[in-house]
UniProtKB/TrEMBL annotation:
Biased composition range(s): Basic and acidic residues: 83-92
Source species, domain of life: Bacteria
Region called Disordered, residue ranges: 53-110
Coiled coil location: none
HAMAP family in UniProt: UPF0229 (MF_01232)
Any single Pfam family the record assigns to this protein: DUF444
Annotated family: Belongs to the UPF0229 family.
Protein name: UPF0229 protein G3R48_03710
Organism in which the protein naturally occurs: Shewanella intestini
Entries under PANTHER family matching the protein: UPF0229 PROTEIN YEAH
Length: 422
């Protein structure tokens, strides 16, 4: 077997290229491992890196080996032990463990699975690669930006058209004062001494000539100081700033009523953390509004939304009404792409579900790009689910999904925000 050895010295960062090649080559297996791992994470570590386990058979590499050449005569013995249909006994193997999971191997020796550590950025990139906000193409994409030029001070380099005359003359004056002030002071002193000698009839001619030579030398040096130099030139500096061509806002509505037990709240939090990471990582010009509700709804910050322990009864319409009020005050529909995601266990006052349907039908769905509702429960669906399903028949910008346990979080999330094909 021929072995090829690369003896070149490893340059700094060479392993990064090899890492990217490995991820690209085994992307399918790594993405499957990432999607499986996200459902096993807690709220606190959902955005950290991950150890990915890939079966050894999936990362086998092609090898070079010597082929059998020439003319070879070979005798194959006949089969004198088995007939068609015979059952072959399993060969007796060793006691080694296989598959890397601590389970006994039924075939003797085996190899551990390959464990590969991916970083936080790599994990999130693989997690959200095929996802996007639906219907965003109806307006200009919020990832596209225009650039506006604005004055940003002064610079020493530039084109003649951008010369700032006042700043350049000010710099020239400062330089000339710094270079000639001492010489002018000396010249003034020597001139006074010369005037005194010229007024004195008994003054020595040599002294007068020496002073005149010194004065002429100083005047020559002063004359050599340029009025303006390249160091004095100042140019107007212009920079560009991004002006978003469109904007998007995501309203996150979460039920924190007493019917939402701790496990259900944990699933809802994990779904919203996943959504928050997706939005903030993928879309630059996007705002997120967090609304928690029980019998009353209120706008909260990120920390309180995910970790507050407040609870109470259930009136879903309070959250929908607050969302509509905030949207009307701060996010006009002609300037913003409006999105909403709601998580609940389905419990609601029976009299309130028709009110929720009315709010969505008249005030919210006509304005939003996409409204997603997830119901987290193992029980039969109730009136809220039925009301939202009837809205699906009238509007194509609402999606209703069901989560039973933590394993459904990522598949449901992916189904809600799957990138649309043209």
């Amino acid at each position: 077997m021929a072995n090829f050895i690369d003896r070149r010295l490893n340059a700094k960062g060479k392993s990064t290229v090899n890492r990217q090649r490995f991820i690209a080559r085994h992307k399918k297996q790594i993405k499957k491992a990432v999607s499986d791992a996200v459902t096993q994470r807690s709220v606190t570590d959902i955005d950290t890196g991950e150890k990915i386990t890939i079966p050894t058979r999936d990362i086998s590499e092609p090898t070079f080996h010597q082929g059998k050449g020439g003319i070879r005569d070979q005798v194959h013995p006949g089969n004198d032990q088995f007939n068609r249909g015979d059952k072959i006994e399993r060969p007796k193997g060793g006691n080694g463990n296989g598959s890397g999971q601590g389970e006994a191997s039924d075939s003797g020796e085996s190899e551990d699975d390959f464990v590969f550590q991916i970083s936080n950025d790599e994990y999130l990139e693989l997690l959200f690669e095929d996802l996007a906000l639906p219907n965003l193409q109806k307006t200009q994409l919020n990832k596209l930006v225009e650039y506006q030029t604005y004055r940003a001070g002064y610079t020493n380099d530039g084109v003649p058209a951008n010369i700032n005359i006042v700043r350049s003359l000010r710099s020239s004056l400062g330089r000339r004062i710094a270079m000639s002030a001492k010489k002018k002071k000396q010249l003034k002193i020597l001139q006074l001494q010369l005037d005194a000698l010229l007024k004195n009839p008994g003054a020595s001619t040599d002294e007068i000539q020496t002073l005149q030579e010194q004065i002429n030398a100083l005047r020559t040096k002063l004359a050599k100081v340029p009025f303006i130099d390249t160091f004095d030139l100042r140019f107007n500096n212009y920079a560009r700033k991004e002006i978003p061509t469109s904007q998007a806002v995501m309203f996150c509505l979460m039920d924190v009523s007493g019917s939402m037990d701790q496990a259900t709240k944990e699933i809802a939090k994990r779904f919203y953390i996943l959504l928050y990471l997706f939005l903030t990582r993928t879309y630059k010009n996007l705002e997120v509004v967090f609304i928690r509700h029980h019998t009353q709804a209120k706008e909260v910050d990120e920390q309180e939304f995910f970790y507050s322990q407040e609870t109470g009864g259930t009136i879903v319409s309070s959250a929908l009404k607050l969302m509509h009020d905030i949207q009307q005050q701060r996010y006009p529909e002609n300037q913003w792409n409006i999105y909403a995601a709601q998580a609940s266990d389905g419990d609601n006052w029976s009299d309130d579900s028709p009110h929720c349907k009315e709010l969505l039908n008249k005030h919210i769905l006509p304005l939003v790009r996409y409204y997603s509702y997830i119901e987290i429960t193992k029980r039969p669906h109730q009136t809220l689910w039925a009301a939202y399903q009837t809205l699906q028949e009238e509007f194509d910008n609402i999606a209703v999904q069901h989560i039973r346990d933590a394993d459904d979080i990522y598949p449901v999330f992916k189904a809600l925000f799957q990138k649309q094909t043209a």
